[in-house]
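Box 3.1. Reading complex inputs
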Amino acid sequence: MSKKRELILAFESSCDETSVAVIEDGHRILSNIIATQIKSHQRFGGVVPEVASRHHVEQITFCTQAALEEAGVTYTDLTAVAVTYGPGLVGALLIGVTAAKAIAYAHHLPLIPINHMAGHIYAARFVKPLEYPLLALLVSGGHTELVLMAAAGEFEIIGDTRDDAAGEAYDKIGRVLGVPYPAGKEIDRLAHLGQDTFDFPRAMLKEENLDFSFSGLKSAFINTVHHADQIGETLNRENLAASFQASVVEVLTEKTMRAARQLDVHQLVVAGGVAANQGLREELAEAIKASGLDLDLIVPPLRLCGDNGAMIGAAAHIELKKETFANLTLNAVPGLDFPYRA
Amino acid sequence: MKLLAMDTSNQAVSVALLDDQQILGEMTVNIRQTHSQTLLPMVDQLLKQTQTAIETIDRFVVAEGPGSYTGLRIAVTTAKSFAWTLNKPLVGISSLALLAANIVDTTALIVPLFDARRANVFTGVYQWQSGSLQTVVADQHVSIETLLARLQLLAEPVYFVGNDVAHFKEELQAALGSNAHFVGANHNLPHASVLGKLGLLAEPVADIHRFGPVYLRKTEAEVNWAKTHDERGTESYVEQV
């Protein structure tokens, strides 16, 4: 008799993407349906939580059906249902949580609650098997964290932003440059066409800790542009973008390398929406090469850097083994976080 | 026909199981609560107490709104997911209609209402005609002032229903005098069994995927955006990538 396949139906709805995936053994994507609301929120210059929640309700069963059909599986084939229960927008999270609970209950399947940030890290599992201890740099619109994983499914924050997340800073300066939300991709592109001529501050670079700060950089950027406006001067957009990105990337790279040197790790996972940033990928690769460290840089493919159900299914594979199951009272936890290192 | 009905439009959570007109069980909890934590455990308890397998449910009925946005989405998403995943019909019923249907044995006008804050209400006007509850004025979001002006014009006895009626009782009485009638606590509370009976007769939704709450209000962001933009020509704001 052949071994039963391990198939997880995974839900993600923490922000402005409704996504449902079917994942086999934690590392094979049978389907990964993503419905994005970017066009909707572009109207408002950022994600409006109530609008996001409304879109999720209209997408959730549709995406689930597409995921099952594309994977060619039915409920009796499934091993478990997994869902992001935080962090994120509470109203948005609730749609995935509510649908996943109902579907798991209707088909008598175990329900696995997943931390969205664990999902981002486990997106790397689709590239290759992960080896522990492992260092992860999580950069997105809501987070900028260095996470140490001592073992599978164990997460500890060793560095964090004191104010804005890196992705948030991108969106805020994007507004100043007139780049539509989400601004990261366009600023990355502009940055590659310009030079670091403005020499914006590199916050907390000289401090021993592994923490970040981006609000000073954001203010310096905005002040520079406003000052130029007042004296009727037009600044070069490419150089502004390049200078901003140089500061973000240098701080992220420097702190990450500092952590890598302190720890006995051989893999560095870069995850979250900002992991799609070419400038960051390039500089990290160079820094690792220059350091002589035996450190394997793993960056998930672009499609898996943004929010998606596949990464939730990959993280759920680990929690399934640990039998981390939710009961019927599972609720969204918008402020869910990993523990900080003692 | 076995029918499971659920309502989380406002503070109370109510679930009921019916076999045609027969109420097999009903559970209503009226405390401040997190609906996402209470609804499914209540459904589970009801099914267990009535020894019913969820697979044997023939129809799911949900109070579709108006009401608290987040609250509505819990029952709507649950009912919609159940109906879709078990391949059973789904019926959406006005959250105001199920309150109106609490009041029987009268042919007077029935006005259920929810406090929508800033002196506004979600309300509609209902009436029993030949044994069936009819909508006289469609559910809407309206200022309490406008509602009262309209009801004054009608100059008919009106039954106000809903827990939020208490917030406006003095204004209602002042405006309508002896035409304003109020009902007891049990009638002000939503009962999923009443929802179920309405759902028994109603037409199931044609496309479960597209089904969502009836909010009766656009979000503030959309309203502001629409002041300076034209929505025509926009195919869809959500796309699969």
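In summary: Chain B touches chain A through 41 residues (CB under 8 Å).
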